[in-house]
Every structure is written in C-alpha cells, then in structure tokens.
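Entry — protein

Goal — fold tokens:
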Amino acid sequence: MPLKTAAGRSVSSQQLRKENGFSIPPSDPVRKRLKGRAWIGKVFILFFSLVVCLEGGSRLVLSINPLRRRVTGFDDASYRLQWIRLHREHQDWTGPFAIYHPTRGWALKSGIRDMKVFDGTILNTNSKGVRGKSDYNYERTLGTQRILLLGDSFTFGAEVPDEVTFAHYLEAHIPSTEVLNLGVQGYGHDQMLLYLKEEGIKYRPDIVILGFAYIDIYRNIENFFAYAKPKFTLTSGGLKLRNVPVPTPERVLAEEPFRPKSFDILFILKEKLGWALGKNEAQARAITEQLLTEIIKTTRDIGAVPVFVYMPVNEEIAPLPAFGITTNSPAVADREQYLHGICEKEKLPCLFLRPRFRQEVQKGADLHPRGHWNATAHSIAGEEIKNFLSSNGLIRSGLFDKAVSSPN
C-alpha cells in the first residue's frame, strides 16, 4: 500500500525505508540466488581442498621409499616412477649399454668394446648393435647357415661375458653357422616382433629362435617397463601399434612434474585389482598369442623356420617360492602348456628346457635360479638347443620337420 511523505509524495514502503536509512531485505528469488552461489563456492572450496590434500598426500607417499615400495606394483605408472627414481640416482634400468630407440624404446649401443658391466663382465657389440665383436653383413655368406636369436635378457646374456652366452655356444659348436644374438635386456615380445621386422629379416636367416620366458608376456600389456616402449592392442582388424614414436627421455622427464601423482596411485590400485581378478593375466595371454603368431608369420614369409625355446627362470628352475611378477602367474605347468598349445596350433618346433635344468639342479648344479642364468645354465641351454636342432634336421639337411618337445 503506498504511503505519503511529509511533502505529500506517494512512495512504497521499501522506498520509504531506504530514504530513511533502513536496509531492505532481498526478495525471495534474490535470496535463493545468493544462497546458491554461496553453496557452490563452499563446494568448490571443499573439492579443491580435497584435491590438494589427495595430490599432496600422493606425492608424499611416493617420495618416501618404504611407502613407495609398498604402494607400487607391476604396471605402467609403477615402472615409470621406478625409471624416474633411477634416473635421479644416475642409474638406468636398461643399463649403460642401451640407447633410446624411437620405435622399440631402447636398443643396444653399437660399437661397444670391452665395456665392464654386471660387476666386471665384459660386453661387446658390433657396428649394428648386435652382441659380440663379429660383424655380419645383410648378404649371406655362401655355404654358411644363419641362425637369428630373439629374446630378452636371458637370450642377451645378462651377467655373463660374450663368450659364455648360449648364442656363442651355438656358433662355436655348429659347423659353418653364423648365430646372431638379437636379444635385448628388458624386451617384451612386441619389441622382439618390431626388431625382427626392422632388422632381423634383412639378414635372411635360415632359422629364427625365440627365447620364450613367460615373464615377458606381462611386458606386452605395458607401454612402460625398463623405459617407455611401444604397445600393441587387439582390434577387429588385428594388432594395432601404439605409443610410437616412443617419447624421448627428455620429454618423459619434462612432463613428470606435471603428472598428477594421485592419478598414478589410482591407476596402480586399479591394476592391482586387475592382477587379483586375473584380468591382466588373460589380457597378457591374448595379446602375446597374437604377437607370437605374427613373429611366426614374419619368419615364414622370408623362408625361414621359427623355433620357440621355453627358457625356465626363477622358480621354474628350482623349487623356490615365486617372487616379483610371477607371484601373479599360474602354476609352472600351466605356463608351459600355454606355449605348447601355440606350438601345436602353428605346427612349430618347440623346445622346453625345464626338464634338463631340473635334472641338473637335482645333481647339484647351481644355475643361479634367483637371477639371470650363469655360465653353466647357458652351456646347458646351448647344448640342448643344438641337439634339438640337429635331431629334427634343422641344421643337418635343411629339411625342416615339425617337432614339438614335451614340457614334461
């Protein structure tokens, strides 16, 4: 109802209160808007505080070594954090003999001469980064058979000198044969496939031997292991290569301070759940089978014979408790049966070394089951591989027969 001022002017009650210095309470719609804004502001502050606390706590946990070791596991984030830590300590998981590679992540440096590694072991590489001093032309030598080896650190010969590796044993004990050791420390089967396609086929080998260690299948589901690496995924059209070119060390280091460590911890926890539920195991087996199939196809396409050798490691050699990544693995017999099934499906020569290794251990031989093979293990492996190739006509007549040894 309008009111009149002393001057006789009609005004509203709100105008009159305002003219006389009284505050005017906001209307209901305005009050609701103000309350809504205040509520949004409080929620934002709370959310921001939680994010800061979570990120700060995550960074604190990962900066304390005992806590970091308890939190991290077997996944991209954990391996990346491990590489960052080693880099800060002026170390390198791939070793001082490795160099960045744009498609495989890392490779052996070429032209290494008498480098002391592995507590004094001597390492050499040729002009193309193949282990040993001998250079091999892409062109074949008339009258000489050529064997190409693919594999990880066990094939490469970590912790033993050049002349002790089973690759050297084969070349020394098989007449008129060149053996090229393309094993690289830390490689998964995805990197072995790329190495075969990029370099291996240029040598036109007669035989391609893949040293199969079961632990390598887990590397095939990661895009970071000893360092950043390529990764294949399964699509409806087959294998799809990702994370190539592999980021350089400079880029990885430059991006690290800006990576949310809270995301890393959440990812690590998710992957631990994946291991516990068997999801990661199934994924690793599926992608590995396709990678091995592609290695077989690539080998046969150049007229060579693929041969798989199951290389026992750790508790597969001696009755010891599983440790590291193999705590997530199935029983040893199941691991061997996985490869045996692929070999039979592809009609592939396949050798299993565990029976011979176990026999030697029972006789008292020390094959260094808690680490990389020692000289004795390499010698036994070389002897078994040589006999297997010979007994199946792979180095005698060139008639390559189907041969699958029993894992038992």
In short: The two ends are 102 Å apart (CA to CA).
